[in-house]
Amino acid sequence: MKKYIIIFMMAISYMACTKDFEAFNTDQKNPSNVSGEALFTNALKDMTDQVSSTNVNLNVWKLFAQYWTETTYTDESNYDIINRTIPDITFRTYYRGFLQDFKVADSLIRSAPTTNAESEKENKNKLAIIEILRAYSYQHLVDIFGNIPYTEALDVNNISPKYDDAFTIYKDLFSRIDAALASMDPAAGSFGNADLIYDGDVEMWMKFGNSLKLKMGITISDFDPTLAKTVIEAAAPNVFTSSEDNALFHYLASTPNNNPLNSDLVLSGRDDFVPANTIVDIMNALNDPRRPKYFTMVNNNYVGGIYGESNPYSQYSHISDEIRDPTFPGILFTYDEVLFYLAEAAARGFNVGGTPDSFYNNAIKESILFWGGTEAEAQTYLTAPAVAYATATGDWRQKIGTQAWIAFYTRGLEGYTEWRRLDYPVLNIAPAITNYNEIPKRFTYPVNEQTLNAANYYKASQEIGGDELTTKLFWDKF
C-alpha cells in the first residue's frame, strides 16, 4: 500500500511540475489568443495614459507649455530631454506600444468571420474607429518630431524604416480619416463597452474624426492655407456641437486604472511639480475664475513657481485636488478646443458658420463650465476689457492663442502646440537658455536612431533643417 501511495504522489508531483513548466514557458502578459476588441481597449487606455501623464520619463509637455515647473530636479524645465532619453521612450511608447496594438487589433478584426450583414457593419465601424485613433496618434508624433517613420513603420521585419515627409504624412492622414468616415454607419454598433470613451457610439466617433480634421487643418493653415481651407470647411459642419461630445476617458479610483496624474502627483509620494508662474501670473492678471480649479492657494494668493528654477514646494501654489484625484478624466478632445479652432478659422476668413468673436466667447464659456464654473462667472470674465474680443490686447493670434493656451491646461502638447503656432502667450526664459529663440520647437530624434537607423536618421535630420530642439516644424511659419 505504501508503494502505491509513493507512486501516486510521484505522479501528482510530475503533473504539477509539468504544469509549472508549461506556465513558466508561457508569456502571461502577452497571451497568444487575444481578441481585437481587447487589444483596442488596451491601446486606447495606453494612448490616454501617455497623453495624460506628467511622468518626466514619458511626457514633459506640461513643462514645455509652462503650465507647471519642477521643484528640485529642474532638468526637464530647462529642456534637458537627453539625460532620461525621453525622445527614445516617446518613440517606443507610441510605436511599440499603442500604435502596434491598434495595428494588431485591426488585423484580428479584419480576419474575424462575420455572421450577417449587421456584424459586417459593426466590423467596418470598428476598423474605422481604429483608423481615426491611429491618425490621432501619428499626428502627435509629427507634431513632436517632424519627419517620422510612417509608411515603413510597425514592420517587425524592417528595423531601419525610412522617415516620411511630415506634410506628406498630414495629407495622407486626411485621406485616411476621410476614408474611415465614409465607411462608417452610425445606425450600426461597434465596440460596445470595450470602447472606454464613447461606449461604441459610432456617431460620436464620426464627430471626433471630423474634429480631428479641423484641428489638423488649423495646424497647417500658415503653411498651406488653400488645403487648410478645404479641409476645415468640409469638417466644420460635422464637428463636436456640445460638451456632451467631449472625448474623455473615465479613470477609476484604484490602480492600475487611476489617472496617471494621481500616480505622478500623489501615489509617488513626491512633490516634484508646482504651477509655473507663467500661467499663474497671466491668470491672476485676468482675474480668471478657473484658478481654484487649476491651483491651490498659498497665503491666500495664487503663487506660481519661477519657471526653470528650484522651487520649494511649500512656498508655492500646488496642483488642485481635483486634478490630483484618481478619477480625474483623461482628456483627448473637448468641445471648447473645437470652438477655439473654429474661432481661428473664422479669423482667417474661412467659412465655418460663425464669427471669430462668437466662437471665441463660446470657447471660453465652455472651458469655464467644463471646470465647474458658472454662466455668471463666464459672462463677467468675457466682459472684462482684457478678455473681451473687441478690447483684449493684440490681434486675433494673441487673443485666441492666449485664451486657448489657458483653456488647454493639463493638455500639455496642445498648449505647447498653440504657442508654437500662434506665438502667444509670451513664455518665460528658463535659466539654461540665454534668449527667447532658444525655447524648443520640437523634440530631437531618439539617440538610438543615430546608431540603429543611422542612414535614415541623418537623411531626416537634413530634410527638416537639422536635428535640433530649436528647428521649427513645417507648419510653424512665424
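Next protein, fold it too.
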Amino acid sequence: MKISVIGSGLIGSTIATLLCNDPEIDGIALVDHNGNALTDAVSKLNSKKVKAHKIEIAHYDDLSTILSQTDCIISALPPHLNRKITKLALRLGKHYVDLGGSDITLDQQLALNDDALAKKCWLVPYSGFAPGLVNIAAMQATKEFDTIDSITIYGGGLPIHPEPPFYFQLNFSTVGLIKEYVEPATVIRNGELTKVDALSDYEEVSFNVNGKLIDLEAFVVSGRISSLAKLLEHKVNSLSYKVLRYKGHKNLLDVFGSLGFLSNNLIDVRTNTTFQDLFIRQLTKHLPKGNPDFVLASIEATGIKDGKQKSITYSLEEVYKNEYEHTSLAHCSAVSAIVCAKLLVTNKVDGQGGAAAPEAIIPFDEFEKELEKFGLAIIRKES
C-alpha cells in the first residue's frame, strides 16, 4: 500500500512517522512547498519508505505525477487548501482523506459525491481526531438507542504543564484554530440544525486524567460536527461539540475579541493585512509548541432503548508518551486519518465510492480494531 501525505508540519510529519512504522505500508510520498520543513521531517524519519517532493500546491502537473502513483492521498494542509487537493484526487481517481476544520470547504467537497462515485474513489474529509474519530464514535452511539434525546461531545488536546496567559499550545494550524473561534458553530437544537456563535454555551467541567481530577472549561467551536449534525438532524433532539480548555482561555479570547483582534478589518490596505492576520501571526510566534500533552474525548448520549431511559458514554484518554516523539493530539489525529485511509484502500467500506464524512461510511468495529493497533482505546460505559 502506498500513501501520499501532503504537508510536513506537525500533523503531516506525525502521519508519515506512523506510516513508516506500519508493515502494511510499502511507500510514502511526502509533499510540501516548504523545503526546510520537508528536509527536517525526512531527516527525522530516516526511512527508505519515504520519498520527499518539494512542490507548490498550485503546480498541478507536478503534483499529479506524484499522487497518481499512490493508493490514497492524506492532506495535512490548512483547511482552506483542501478543496484544491480534493479536486485533484478526484481527477486522478484516488481515495482522499483530510483533517477537516472548515465547514465551507466541507460543503464544497461533499458536493463532489456524484463525480467521485463515477470515478469509483472515496473523498472523505473531516477524518482527523475532531472532526473524525469523535464523529465516528458519536454515530456508533446513536445505534444503541430506539430514540435518541441528546449527544454532547467534549474534546480537546491540552498541555500537561500549561503556560500563562493562554494555558494552551499549538498542535495544528493557527489559521485553523482561529477559524474555530470566529466562524459560526453548527449544533442541533430541538431537532433542528442551527448555527450559534462560537465560544458560546460555556460551562465548567472536570475530567479525570491519569488518576487526577482536572478542572476545565468547555464551549462550542466551529468546524467539528457540521457533517454529523446534517446526518442527525430530526433524529436527535440536541447535539453539540464543546472544546476543552484550561480555565481562563476563553476570557482572554473575549478580551482580544473586544479589542478587534479577531476581526477581518484591515490594518494596512497596501498589504491587505487584517487585525486577525496580526493576531494569528503573534500567536504562531509566541504560543508554545510540541510540549507533552494529553487528549480527552467524551461522547455522552441519552435516549430510550426497549422503553427504558439509557445513558452511554464513549471516552478516550491519550497521554503523551516519550517514545512517540510527537504530541498526543498529533498522534490521535494522525492515527484516525491513517485508519480511515487504510479502510478505504482495503475496501472495508460499503459502496463503490463517493464523497462522504467518515461517520457516514466508516465501519465502527473495523475502525476501533485498527485504532487499538496504534495504542488508542475507546471505552464504553452505560447507565
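About the second fold: The radius of gyration is 20 Å.
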